[in-house]
Amino acid sequence: MTQDIADEPLLLTPGPCSLSRTVKEAMLHDYASGEEVMVEKIRHCRSTLLDLVNGHGSHTAVPIVGSGTYANEAAIGTLVPRDGKLLVHTNGVYGDRIVDIARHLRIPYASFRTAPFTPPTAEQFEEALAADPAITHVMVVHCETSTGILNPVAEIAAVCRRRGVGLLIDAVASFGIMELDAKALSYDAVVLSANKGIQAPPGIAWVIAKRTVLEESQGNSPSLSLDLWDQYQHIERTNHFRFTPATHLILAFSQALKEHAEEGGIAGRQARYRASWRRLVDGMRQMGFRTLLDDAVASPIVATFHEPQDENYSFARLYAGMKARGFIIFPGRLAAANTFRIACIGVVTPDDIARAMEALAETMAEMGVRSFGREPVPA
């Protein structure tokens, strides 16, 4: 028997996220890559992404088949020249992944770390750049979803402009939720994935790159399939991908962009996510859970909670209990041990979060957990 999508658990995870029925239905069409409908969908996606960042005239949007990590690798490999050097900040798993990418691409790099609950400061970037004049580019994760922390890209961008170095932003988690004005920040590139704030299916990512920088990057990439310059010049000339495109995902992404606009764009989507996040954090704290992050540095995308120090608690049982009640949650990542995460992205409302809080309380009671981290729950 085929399960109806209405019976699927709601994903309270930082990606993939639960999608609207209309976004899913957009994929129920088979088109050849060169058909006019596909050309038009690609044009719509590219133009709308530039609308979202005020990027018309200065930047261009280039699609990459794959996850956000693929697009990060394409951006680094293409935009950092072979005689360049990359400075990477990390305070979590995804910052560490950027370091991994640079290492695999054999791109010279320097890195510095802050604690998973601490964003970097502009002064730390100033000091790192002053100490190493060979650095030509900086890359930072906007929202580090291994914890939910929001890093200060505007302050970092200001340092990069003063120092004359290129800025690459991993906005895989934050795009469509937080403002990233291309002209105000003057970044060389911002990387996004379909399956986060845009609420489209995973499998396609985008690099919004400064045209002048991209046009000068021919020959930089060590990869054929992840050569951003080659993909850019081909799509500009033909309105097609170089290789087999993710046709169904383009259809869904285009529909998701329409629904993003109908919700009120970045402001509207952020308002819903923030309301859900507030309901989540307040509800969990009322039960006795402690958040990893202070509210001042937390994003409205995902919240990380310390696990209960109770002998009856196990994340495996919490996961199973939540799934049985219609919700999927995630464990913490290596950035913060003994934690778990609940996200607010996708087609999730504050009412959904309220139901999830009831499910979590029921699951904890079922496990016999009485201590949530501060004091035992009253009998």
Topology:
Layout: E1 10-11, H1 21-25, H2 36-53, E2 59-65, H3 68-79, E3 86-90, H4 93-105, E4 109-113, H5 122-131, E5 137-141, E6 143-144, E7 149-150, H6 153-163, E8 166-170, H7 182-185, E9 189-193, E10 204-210, H8 211-215, H9 228-238, H10 247-262, H11 265-287, E11 302-306, H12 315-324, E12 327-328, E13 330-331, E14 339-343, H13 350-367
Parallel strand pairs: 1-12, 3-4, 3-5, 5-8, 8-9
Antiparallel strand pairs: 2-10, 6-7, 9-10, 11-14, 13-14
How is this structure best summarized?
Helix content is 41%, strand content 16%. It is α/β, with parallel strands linked by helices.
Give the H and E element order.
EHHEHEHEHEEEHEHEEHHHHEHEEEH
How many β-strand runs? 14
Strand order of the largest sheet: 2-10-9-8-5-3-4
Mean pLDDT: 94
Strand content: 15-25%
Radius of gyration: 21 Å
Which stretches are low in confidence, meaning pLDDT under 50 for 5 or more residues running? Answer: 374-379
Described by its quaternary structure, the protein is single chain
Helix fraction, binned, reads 40-55%
Largest sheet: 7 strands, mixed
Count of helix runs: 13
- Overall body shape: globular
N- to C-terminal separation? 43 Å
Structural class label: alpha/beta
Please tell me about this protein's structure.
The chain is α/β, with parallel strands linked by helices and 379 residues long. The protein has 13 helices and 14 strands. The strands form four sheets. Strands 2-10-9-8-5-3-4 form a seven-stranded mixed beta sheet, with helices on both faces. α3 (68-79) packs across α4 (93-105), α5 (122-131) runs parallel beside α6 and α11 packs parallel to α13. It is globular.
